[in-house]
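Please produce the structure of this protein holding acetyl coenzyme *A.
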Amino acid sequence: MNSKTNGNHKSNAALPGAKRNAHIAGWGKYVPEKVMSNDEIAKLVDTSDEWIQQRTGIRERRIADPKETTSTMAIRAARDALALAGLNPGDVELVIVATATPDYIFPATACLVQNALGASRAGAFDLSIGCSGFVYALGVGASMITSGAVNNALVIGSETLSRLLNWADRGTCILFGDGAGAFVLRASDTPGGVLSYKLGSDGSGGDLLIIPAGGSKHPISQEVIDQGLQFLRMDGQAVFKFATRVMGKAAKEACELAHLSLDEIDLFIPHQANLRIINTASKFLKLPDAKVMVNVQKYGNTSAASVPIAFCEAVDAGRVKPGDNLLLVSFGAGLSWAAAAVQFEPVMPSKPHTAKDVLADWFHYNVASARSVLSHGLHRLDSVTGRKVWGAKDPK
Ligand code: ACO
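Below is the modeled complex.
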């Protein structure tokens, strides 16, 4: 148990069901192999490595290969998180995919992930709230655990924003990258885990960061495409000002709800959108650089994937230790924001993956794939036989 909280800490004071806690039991990330440097972008639009680094801190980002999608990246991150948590995919009870770039409008990307993982007992849904999505999903997953509705949840942030950028718009195409990150949350009586969260929205700024087409307002048509409405549009300065205002405030609120002072925060893991925004928020919170996780230089803004990817890299770098208090904050389209205070207590078996486990995983995922093909075939059969039966008996 964290000596700082000494067992007197009011865990989940802001969450229902105070005795059940939602712990981060596993985590994983996936980023595409292809690295795109600022110099490469400077060949497409009138910009420079110097300008991009100075204004954003970004040096490079990852771009999904044509065969990769939001679901395929989510599956890679989820498999690693499940392996670390020692949780059999067949025992997963809930899959939430936070994404602004789903594979399709429907079915939900979470359903594709659930099927590929062979998580046959899980409910699954997408959560769409732009870059704030992962921290929102963390709050929802944690609440479903503490309420007793589920015993575990796979919470994923995955994005393929490169497909929705206008690569001729230097105000946006420099900022974003692709990737995925996942947490396994599990119920436990041990104090700690997700201590609190604060969600926010201000829809009056909806048009400041928007992909206008592809929904019911502007379905895809030649006219829509001619106007370029299928691409991400942003008023960079307005979003910048909003972000600097809201990040520090949301972070403070999440701390207050968790009864933590800012001094008790060991690591601040903010949404990785722009180094200047991160620095402004850290300054507002009076957090020294040593307590702030930054990896925006490597990946740009990966939207809902940025916080879990940053968390994974912080753990790998030895910057997150058992008992640490973490502050996760994000902001984005909506406009929206979310912050969560987490006490990291990997109480579950975060065990090293043995060769036997790897073999068991291989077997499980191949069985899941075969079952998916079989099940798909049965749905088709239903359709054919249904047509025959209902076609013959079609009531007048
Ligand atoms: N290269 C060179 N010059 C550029 C570029 C570029 N890539 N982009 C803009 N400029 C120019 C502008 O045209 C402008 O020129 P002018 O003075 O001659 O008119 C000048 O640089 C300054 O432009 P600003 O927009 O004022 O630049 P700013 O310092 O605000 O930086 C940026 C722009 C990086 C987009 C910044 O506003 C920002 O990061 N905003 C927040 C974006 C963000 O965090 N989005 C979150 C998304 S979350 C989600 O849900 C998806």
